[in-house]
Each structure stands twice: as structure tokens, then as C-alpha cells.
Design brief:
Elements (H helix, E strand, L loop, with lengths): L2 H30 L3 H22 L3 H19 L5 H7 L21 H18 L11 H26 L27
Helix pairs in contact: 2-5, 3-5, 3-6
């Protein structure tokens, strides 16, 4: 007669299973955080699988277009500083250093590299799954979508590059900078010894 007890056991088992699954998934994500090169290789594989799917099906261009706009939005957040210097300039707060005598502050992205990778990989996986549903295969003339996306990309990147030039920041740093100590200053003046 205990009908509610069976439902509680089933929901408890399902919630335990989902909790275990989410912990394992988070563990894998945590372990992959320092493996930047391997993560991007995995993304490249996901990208090519999606590209092959769209090429062989010859459809789902609307999904690809929406994916392209989402990637552009993520890329702009990846290139932007966490605190916009344009807004700081208006509020007269601290800004990015423009002279050598000012305090050095490293570039902090609005969207960190790991979150950029995670979001873009997840977006491609979702888009791949959507290519199996016929209702998303809207017939469109894909060259117009490609042309419009290219115009959108060029316009937004031009604006972003102008922003970088105006506020003098570079969102990329290659390699870890190391402190080598003070360099010895060599006195170039001849010494007068008797």
C-alpha cells in the first residue's frame, strides 16, 4: 500500500545517479583545465565532425549561421578586457597603463580561455545534435548567409581592433614571462688609472 515509497526510492536512485554523473563530468573538466593543447585538439575533432555532417547532408545552414554568430559573440568576449576601459574612462576610475611609469596590470579577459573552449565545444555538440532533426533544416540560399556573416565579422572585428588600438591593450601573450633578475650595467666610460 506504500505507493509513495516506491516513487521516493526511484527518484532517490535517479538523483544519486545524476549526482554521480555530474561529479564525474566535473572531475573530467577539472583534470582537462591545464591541458590546453589537448582540449583544443578535441575541439578540432568536434568541429570537423560537425563540418562533415553539414557537408554530407547539404543542409542545416541556419543552424550553422546561428552557430557562427554565437562563436563571434564568444570570440569578442574572449578578446575584450574584463573591465572595459571606455566605461572606466567615463567614471574616471583606474584605466589600463599607457606609459612605462604606470603600474603594470596583466590583461584579464572578460571570457577566460577555458570558458571560451567549453562554450564553443558545447555549442558545436548541440548544433551537431540539432542536425538530426528535420524541422531545423530550413531551406535557405547559403551564400547569402555566408556573405552576411563575413560582413558582420569584418565590421565587429574592425570595431574591436580600433578599441584595442585606442586603449592600447593586446589580448594575447605568448609564453610565460620569467624574471631573469637585474642585468648588470656595464660602464662604457674608460677608467683613469695611474
Amino acid at each position: 500500500m506504500n505507493v509513495g515509497g516506491d516513487n521516493d526510492l526511484k527518484s532517490s536512485g535517479v538523483s544519486e545517479w545524476t549526482n554521480t554523473l555530474s561529479r564525474r563530468y566535473q572531475y573530467i573538466l577539472d583534470k582537462s583545465t591545464p591541458l590546453v593543447f589537448h582540449r583544443w585538439i578535441g575541439f578540432t575533432v568536434v568541429f570537423f565532425i560537425y563540418a562533415l555532417r553539414v557537408y554530407f547532408v547539404q543542409g542545416y545552414y541556419i543552424i550553422t549561421y546561428a552557430l557562427g554568430i554565437y562563436i563571434l559573440q564568444l570570440f569578442l568576449a574572449f578578446l575584450s578586457p574584463q573591465v572595459d576601459p571606455e566605461l572606466e574612462e567615463i567614471s574616471d576610475g583606474p584605466s589600463l597603463p599607457t606609459h612605462g611609469s604606470e603600474e603594470f596590470r596583466p590583461f584579464v579577459r572578460r571570457l577566460p580561455e577555458f570558458k571560451f573552449w567549453y562554450s564553443i565545444t558545447k555549442a558545436f555538440c548541440i548544433a551537431f545534435v540539432l542536425t538530426f532533426f528535420g524541422m531545423f533544416d530550413v531551406p535557405v540560399f547559403w551564400p547569402i548567409l555566408l556573405f552576411y556573416w563575413m560582413v558582420l565579422f569584418i565590421a565587429t572585428m574592425k570595431k574591436q581592433i580600433m578599441h584595442m588600438i585606442k586603449y592600447r591593450y593586446v589580448p594575447f601573450s605568448f609564453g610565460k614571462q620569467r624574471y631573469t633578475g637585474k642585468k648588470a650595467v656595464v660602464d662604457a666610460t674608460p677608467s683613469s688609472r695611474p
